[in-house]
Known about the structure:
Elements: H1 4-11, H2 14-33, H3 41-53, H4 55-69, H5 75-79, H6 83-97
Helix pairs in contact: 2-3, 2-4, 2-6, 3-4, 4-6
Amino acid sequence: MATYKQISDIANNNILLDQMSVAVAIHADVIRQEAGSVANHANRLIWAKATFSDPVAMASKMQWAVLAQNASATDAQIRAATDATILTAIAAAVDIFATGA
């Protein structure tokens, strides 16, 4: 398990933020194409639009939620996260941020 200090160091590392910026943009496009019957769809579309406007800012907002999901992983596992792992974590956190506000 990564220590809180290690997790903080990862959060302050732009490599993860760069990967997350791409992942939020990709997931925003997935949401753009999803059916209107998906739960929270209207708010998810608002989130997607905001994400397309500034994916770096959205990634920055979501970074701690993604790190918290992986708090039981080791420092090395978090740092070695694949694109698919990061995208899955973004997808799992979207509805927390897709509130329509």
